[in-house]
Structure of Coiled-coil domain containing 154:
Amino acid sequence: SQRPLPQPHPWASAPSLLTIALEDLGLLEEELASPEPPSLEEVLENDACSRLLSDASNLEQGTPKRWKQLEQWVADLQAEVASLRGHRARCEHATLSLLRELLQVRACLQLQDTQLKRLQLEARQAAPAPEKEDIQAGPGQRCPFCARLVEVREALTQIRRKQALQDSERKGAEQEASLRLSELTGKLKQEEQDREVACGALQKSQEEVGQKVDHEVARMQAQMTKLGEEMSLRFLKREARLCGFLQKSFLALEKRMKASESARLRAESALREELEGRWRQLQELDTERVRALQGQLCQAPSARQQEECHLLEQCRGLDKAVVQLTEFVQQNQVSLNRVLLAEQKAWDAKGQLEDSRAGELATYLQENLEAMQLASELAQQEMHGALELLREKSQALEVSVAELVRQVKDLSDHFLALRWRLDLQEQTLSMRLQEASNEWAVAEQRWREGLTRCREEAEAHLREVQEQVDQLPQQIEAVTDKCVLHKSDLDCKISAEATARELAVEAVRQELAALLSSVQLLREGNPGRKIAEIQGKLATNQMMKLETSIQDNKTIQNLKFNTETKLRAEAMATLQESVLRLWSEEGPWAPTLSSRRGPMSLGRQQLFVKDVAPNDVVPVNHWGVYQAVRWLQWKTALMNLAARQTPRSVALEKPLGQKPACRLSSLPVPQK
């Protein structure tokens, strides 16, 4: 029973072929292990069955190991294909991640380029602004530019740090990408070598299996031909023996028949000779008697009559004897015939028995020959079926091997294409990295050029700012002088207002005393004293409110003065910090500037510091008149700048001491 094998799928050929092959192998084992049809001779049946079972057991012992090995090899190939697919997915994921990182690096470079361009534009826009403001507002507006320069420096330092970080990140990304590419190429090469080794081993194993299957098929064919020849020789020997036995039995039977026939013929010839002799004797006796009677008749008629009578009696006696003899002969003939018939019947029965035995033996031999022919035909059919199954399985194995070879070839082509793709991606990535590095070098060169330009502009601005800072002590002294004058004016105004209000309070008290006396008089003599009491209460309440308002005004003035002094101190501290920062950062431009700045900066560091006495809790301002006048000048410049940039209504509503702080807080923060 031949079953058509299904066409294997390209990706699921090995398991299906294995299951089919195992099922066919099981059927083949069942067919080989099944007993042969029963024959008539037990010896031949046992011999043939033992040989077939030994062949089936050898085939059964040899083939499952090979099938297991083939199954293991196919499973290993499938696992290798799955691992190669996973590695391919990982390679694609790694390439995508590298492309994303490169895009991120490129975006960062573009963002840095835009930031550099923006800073260059801001620097170019901010370059002519101090000259215009210097022309418009004078030396009072240099402080915002100093703060702006400080912010620009901070922004430049942050940009440098970012660029250094991005350079390190870019180098790390390039190194990581190169390492990943080297690892991927190494893994691909290793996997390709492993795959080639596995393919070579698989081809060798398949060739060995094919050779072993061919050897097994040839061995089984040789065994079957040898078994057929042995069976045919045994059948021929058995047939020759039977033919010799039959010939011997037939020859013996023929000899017996010939002997019995010769004995019968001899007995018949003896009886015939005896009868003929007796008949001749009787005829001779009869002739002699007739002759004697004729002589006697001639001699005497009476005697002749007597003799005739005697002769008649003798004739009668002879007739009786002849009758008895004929009866005896007939009886002998009958008995002889009976004996002959009995012997013939016995020989016929014996011949029939021999014929029946010979027929039975011939039929037995014919049945044996037919059974042996059927057994040989069945064995040949089974061998042909087994050979067909083996051929089909070998064809299926060849198809599966061809499919596996095709899949391996496709995988090798795919991996070659993937390798080419990875090489192309590596080349594109290297080109992109080279382009990015070139762009980065161009951007860095531009940035350095812009930085040198900004440095030159900053040096020019610093020269101007230094000149303005040189003028700052005079301005601060003028401002401090103005502050002292303003404070003395405010003290005079506050003292005059306080004396005037005290006089007003005294007058109000006198009026109240007069009112109280009048109210007392009204209580004594006037019935409307309730009205006077109410008015007195109202007057006292007004006086108390006036006193509280005077105290509140004093406290407000004191608070304003204290806040103004605090704001001045904070502004001076910020100004001092900015000046100290400028003096500390003027190191790289020291060769371009005048060499007399070092000792002047050391001497000027003591101008804007408030001294604290060891016994005083509150810091006391120990500035001179010159520093106060300069401070008042600086304050007026800042107030004018704040008044110019803010609306007039908002500037009027805010307190006087808060304007420098508002100006300092309203400076634009540079975009980093």
Remarks:
- The radius of gyration is 75 Å.
